[in-house]
Amino acid sequence: MNTVHFTLPSVLPSRPALQDTTTTAKQVESGLARVTTPQDTPIFICAFQDCNRLFPSRDRLMFHRKRDHDSEEDGDIITWNE
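Predicted structure:
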């Protein structure tokens, strides 16, 4: 089984925003989406060796690092929770 790994640069190129012309006011008011906060949605990204995997906690990320990267280094972590 072949595993494909995608990588993203740490900074994506900017481009002009486009106005949403298809969503109706009723759809917006129905609550299908919401703004979240770091407390509601923890995200920790392993940026070690261009891994870019997502984890719900620092503990899970560090377990991944030890298992998959054979490292306990706690640098190169992208998060909005700290």
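Summary: The two ends are 37 Å apart (CA to CA).
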